[in-house]
TrEMBL record:
Name of this chain's protein: EF-hand domain-containing protein
Domain of life: Bacteria
Leader sequence segment: 1-17
InterPro entries hit by this protein: EF-hand-dom_pair, EF_Hand_1_Ca_BS, EF_hand_dom
Pfam families, alphabetized: EF-hand_5
Species this protein is from: Sphingomonas aerophila
A single MF term (Gene Ontology): calcium ion binding
Region feature Disordered, mapped onto this chain: 106-127
Domain (EF-hand): residue spans on this chain: 70-105
Keyword Signal appears in the UniProt entry: yes
Keyword Signal in record: yes
Keyword list, A-Z: Signal
Length: 127
């Protein structure tokens, strides 16, 4: 189980709003955040919803409200599975529904929040 230093989260948030970076640097930062993304240890469904929305917009680099294959940080079957209408792009609706569905699957005791333990169960499922 990994714990996340608060400072790391803060710096990631600061980077989101930082000005003065070149577009290329920002893109590299967005890739890093998307690829190495680790949410806080306990998260409510509401927080999760706004977090996945922020993540969607971080991935949607051209701002067309669609995450296309070239905007995904890597080929990730869990992400491409979100593309319900199979048009090769993930809309914000597809993204939101898929991510909230994932939250509800992981929320083993249905208390509306995800703990690190519940998230760790997902890690075990992947292997
Ligand atoms: Ca896009
Ligand atoms: Ca789609």
């Amino acid at each position: 189980m990994r714990s996340i230093p608060a400072a790391l989260l803060l710096s990631a948030c600061a980077a989101l709003t930082a000005c003065g970076n070149t577009a290329k640097q920002e893109q590299a930062e967005a890739d890093k955040r998307a690829a190495g993304f680790v949410p806080p240890s306990v998260m409510s469904r509401l927080d999760y919803g706004s977090m996945v929305e922020r993540r969607f917009h971080a991935l949607d680099r051209d701002g067309d409200n669609m995450v296309s294959a070239d905007e995904l940080p890597r080929q990730d079957s869990r992400l491409t599975a979100l593309d319900k209408d199979k048009d090769g792009r993930i809309s914000s609706e597809e993204w939101g529904q898929g991510m909230i569905g994932r939250f509800d699957r992981l929320d083993a005791n249905r208390d509306g929040s995800l703990t690190t333990d519940e998230r760790a169960a997902e890690g075990r499922m992947k292997r």
